[in-house]
From TrEMBL:
<keyword id="KW-0812">Transmembrane</keyword>
<feature type="transmembrane region" description="Helical">
    <location>
        <begin position="231"/>
        <end position="254"/>
    </location>
</feature>
<keyword id="KW-1133">Transmembrane helix</keyword>
<feature type="transmembrane region" description="Helical">
    <location>
        <begin position="76"/>
        <end position="102"/>
    </location>
</feature>
<feature type="transmembrane region" description="Helical">
    <location>
        <begin position="324"/>
        <end position="342"/>
    </location>
</feature>
<keyword id="KW-0472">Membrane</keyword>
<protein>
    <submittedName>
        <fullName>Uncharacterized protein</fullName>
    </submittedName>
</protein>
<feature type="transmembrane region" description="Helical">
    <location>
        <begin position="266"/>
        <end position="287"/>
    </location>
</feature>
Length: 354
């Protein structure tokens, strides 16, 4: 009796339950050892049993899981699996972070920014906003540099903070630093930079007011969408999924490559090295950014934490390739690897078709 005969027949209720449990094993392993395992289980069960025991269920499920993660013998396979897991883990974290930021709120238009700056300054202000965004247009930002009030009101930081709080903004503490400012005449002015972070309705901004030697004091505003709540869990989920996928990929592909001759392995190894270098360069920075995101939390309340670069942006910033080329390369590598990991369809058994 062949493996296919043992696993494909109708059988008893106990046999059907065993066959369903054997689906936890990889297809290639079931094809090679499925009949032997099924025969051993049926012989040990005896005629009076109609369902597997809890211990058998646990052992079969854990055994199947071990087979999925089992690597070819050798230290090289373990090294490649670890590198693959780390590279795809970073890619997964970046993808999860990008998906989370895609749900962020869009910035207000120029009129909306003008209104916010007016509240900060206490009156209409002259300003010039520069709009930017991270890769793929995610996390749009608006920077209002040195907005000067039209009148004579000096927009102190505490007064600006109070006005924003009255408008429903959640404001953080004021942090003071000293800044040296060089004027056009070569005169150095010592000024205190008072900064605080404010957040409302999915928007977050850092307000900076220079006081000392200025009349009236210039105001700088950096605004971007606040980090959505989904960013952190999606980043962690993408990281875990990438780590598992990287290991499983080597476990699946490694056995197929091992069966090839030495010359036929070369193209696969070269492609793996090129893809690993292109996708793996930003991995250390991605892991560092992910740890910082977990430690700092989703809503920084102090100016020193404002503008933290998202994980998805770190992945592209530290890569030698532009975001679109890098993403396309990553998707292509994954598709080719997954296609190669699918086991070939077994040839028909001549004895069964005779």
């Amino acid at each position: 009796m062949t493996a296919n005969d043992a696993l494909a027949g109708a059988g008893s209720g106990l046999e059907r339950r065993y066959r369903r449990l054997l689906l936890a094993y990889p297809r290639s392993y079931r094809r090679s050892h499925g009949a032997e395992i099924l025969t051993t289980l049926m012989d040990a069960a005896g005629p009076s049993r109609d369902r597997p025991t809890r211990r058998e269920v646990r052992d079969l499920m854990l055994g199947g899981l071990r087979q999925h993660f089992r690597l070819p013998v050798g230290r090289l396979a373990v090294f490649v699996a670890v590198v693959s897991a780390l590279v795809l883990g970073a890619l997964g974290a970046a993808a999860g972070s990008g998906l989370g930021w895609a749900t962020g709120r869009a910035l207000p238009d120029d009129a909306g920014v003008d209104t916010v700056v007016g509240v900060i300054a206490g009156e209409p202000a002259r300003w010039n906003a520069t709009r930017t965004s991270d890769a793929f247009g995610l996390r749009p930002q608006a920077v209002v540099a040195l907005a000067t009030p039209v009148g004579s009101t000096v927009p102190g930081a505490e007064a600006a903070r109070s006005r924003l709080a009255a408008e429903g903004w959640r404001v953080g503490p004021v942090v003071t630093t000293q800044t040296a400012v060089w004027t056009d005449g070569g005169v150095t002015i010592r000024a205190n930079d008072y900064a605080f972070v404010a957040e409302r309705d999915g928007l977050q901004m850092m307000v900076s007011v220079l006081e000392g030697g200025f009349a009236p004091g210039p105001v700088s505003v950096m605004m971007h969408s606040a980090e959505p709540r989904s960013v952190l869990p999606l980043t962690i989920a993408g990281l875990v999924a990438g780590l598992l996928a990287g290991w499983l990929l080597v476990a699946r592909v490694g056995y197929r490559v091992r069966r090839l001759g030495a010359l036929r392995r070369v193209p696969h190894l070269v492609a793996a090295v090129v893809a690993g270098c292109a996708l793996g360069v930003p991995a250390p920075a991605v892991y560092r950014a992910a740890v910082e995101a977990v430690v700092a939390g989703p809503a920084p309340a102090r100016p020193g934490q404002f503008g933290r670069i998202p994980v998805f942006a770190v992945h592209h910033i530290d890569s030698p390739l532009d975001p679109y080329t890098l993403t396309g390369l990553g998707a292509l590598v994954l598709l080719v690897a997954l296609a190669y990991a699918v086991p070939p369809k077994p040839a028909p058994d001549p004895a069964a078709t005779a």
